[in-house]
Amino acid sequence: MAGNLFGKIAADTLGISDIGKIISPKDFDKVDGDDYIMHEDGEKIFFVIKSKTDEYVFTNQGLLHVDGTSAISKKRTVVRHEFCYERVSNVTLETAGTIDADVEIKFSFGERSFSIDVDKRQLEELKDLYKTLVEISRMQKSNYRLLEDGTNGLKMANDAISRCHIDGSNISTIAHDLTNFNLDWMEALRKTYNKKDFTEVYEKYINN
């Protein structure tokens, strides 16, 4: 235990630890992750944490993780997590103790869990990211429930219709109209509650 503690202190002192740094917005275009942002589709970077091996690029549409194998290797794996397909959950922020050099933000994106160490001198900036992720998590949870309620309501309506007597001469037309109605209903629900862009949340909490 003591050996690990002293080793961590030595690594921090020598500058060889993997503690992340929050990148200034003026330098967003210089990070590796910027090359993989869908600028053409309105994707925009709002927050970046960069360590010796990894980059965590938070955008209005999700998270781009540029995963490095080591500080000296140029090999990178780019993994994209998007708000419209995955939910943010379990967001926590761990502040530093007396001798700690870092603070830690943890969260899950879909089935993937992240734990990112950040220079404790940048705690105030990291608090902004924490609040942003918490708010996105809340909105996604609420929207999921509303989407589920809308889907269940549609199912109940279809079940009620299926129990009604329908004239055989009109059954083909009715089936066609009902199918189109169902498709339109589900598309409208997804557009309303399966949110893709959280620009307004970032603008509310970041740099305010």
TrEMBL record:
Domain of life: Bacteria
Gene3D superfamilies documented for this protein: 1.10.287.210, Bacterial Pleckstrin homology domain
Domain YvbH-like oligomerisation: residue ranges: 152-208
Limits of the Bacterial Pleckstrin homology domain: 14-136
Any one Pfam family match given in the protein's UniProt record, by short name: bPH_1
SUPFAM superfamilies: PH domain-like
Protein name in the entry: PH domain-containing protein
Organism (species): Romboutsia weinsteinii
Organism classification: Bacteria, Bacillati, Bacillota, Clostridia, Peptostreptococcales
